[in-house]
Design a protein that fits this description.
Length: about 325
């Protein structure tokens, strides 16, 4: 049965939405034009990890059983060593000037410690993170994922579109003092988006950067509002926009290939995007950050961080630990 569902809540909203129905596979973001449903896209499209569209066939909340795979926990002991090797490799490329920025991701395996149902974890995330987009998504192709993400990839209502540059990470406090590294990282992303939008629109504005909160973390954010040229299809824009330098690097194409070839762990649907899609009316797509894949015996949590040539390994490792706490809090919190 090729059936999937997406249970989700928009930022600041109280109501929970459900899309449930048949799952279609796509190999290109441009093929999404004229489609309607809930999109689940990976970081990199492969035969095993395609772009997925859950078609809205059921409006009410109904339950059905899914069989989750078993999580292999054997690699857990080597995660710090794996990150050390990846950091040295990535950082060497930055010092050589091959890249201006690279995003290094990692994962963390956690054995299942209680009997909390996936829907209970979803409700915990909703209570913990009212500012974020929360989604519990299942398809036979992707498995089951829970995300609590602060980053919009593309949002539009009746032809008025928005995106954002979100980069830089610090612990949240009333007054955040941003380092030069964080400011530069955010400016890289904002400049990239500005240059990209110049190809698709002659009517866009930028607001920011400003400090925004995401749970226990703070980020630097710039907002872009725009309309598209009449002959531009939304799938074309998505194809150009994803993945942004916030989850990939610069130069983008070369960084995208380098990450796929050199990271220890395949990103799968982490740092892809998901959300309701209807280009003709209303679309809200979010980058799949602060997420985990659910298994029958545990969870695989994902996080990453942007590296520049002056990045320090220990501080970057600690940043990923802070980001992993977003999902760890969901697993240990009684809401």
């Amino acid at each position: 049965m090729n059936q999937g569902f997406a249970l989700y809540r928009m930022p600041y909203a109280r109501e929970v939405m459900l899309t449930r129905g048949s799952v279609r596979e796509f190999r290109s973001l441009t093929a999404l034009d004229c489609q309607r449903g809930f999109v689940v896209a990976p970081f990199a499209v492969t035969a095993d990890e395609p772009i997925l569209l859950i078609e809205p066939e059921v409006e009410g909340i109904e339950s059905f059983q899914v069989d989750l795979p078993v999580l292999a926990l054997e690699h857990q002991a080597n995660q710090r060593d794996d990150y050390h090797i990846d950091f040295l490799n990535f950082h060497a490329q930055l010092l050589r000037g091959t890249f201006r920025k690279l995003v290094l991701a990692r994962s963390l395996s956690i054995a299942k410690a209680d009997s909390a149902a996936p829907v209970e974890l979803f409700h915990r995330a909703c209570n913990l993170y009212p500012r974020m987009f929360i989604a519990l998504v299942y398809t036979p192709q992707s498995g089951m994922w829970l995300t609590a993400t602060p980053e919009t990839l593309l949002s539009g209502v009746n032809g008025n579109w928005q995106t954002m540059a979100l980069a830089g990470t610090m612990p949240w406090q009333d007054k955040v003092a941003w380092s030069d590294k964080n400011l530069q990282e955010q400016r890289f992303v904002a400049t990239y988006i500005t240059r990209l939008l110049e190809q698709f629109s002659n009517d866009f504005t930028e607001e920011g950067p400003y400090t925004t909160r995401a749970g226990h973390l703070a980020h630097l954010r710039s907002d872009f509002r725009f309309t598209l040229y009449n002959n531009v299809r939304v799938g074309e824009l998505l194809d150009a926009l994803h993945p942004t330098p916030a989850v990939c690097g610069l130069p983008k194409h070369e960084a995208f290939l380098f990450i796929q070839q050199n990271e220890h762990r395949t990103r799968s649907y982490y740092s892809g995007f998901m959300g309701p899609f209807n280009a003709a009316a209303r679309t809200h797509l979010f980058v799949t950050l602060r997420c985990m894949q659910l298994f029958s015996n545990g969870y695989e949590l994902y996080a990453g961080g942007g590296l520049l040539k002056d990045s320090q390994e220990e501080s970057e490792w600690l940043e990923t630990e802070s980001k992993l706490d977003t999902m760890r809090k969901v697993l240990i919190t009684e809401c």
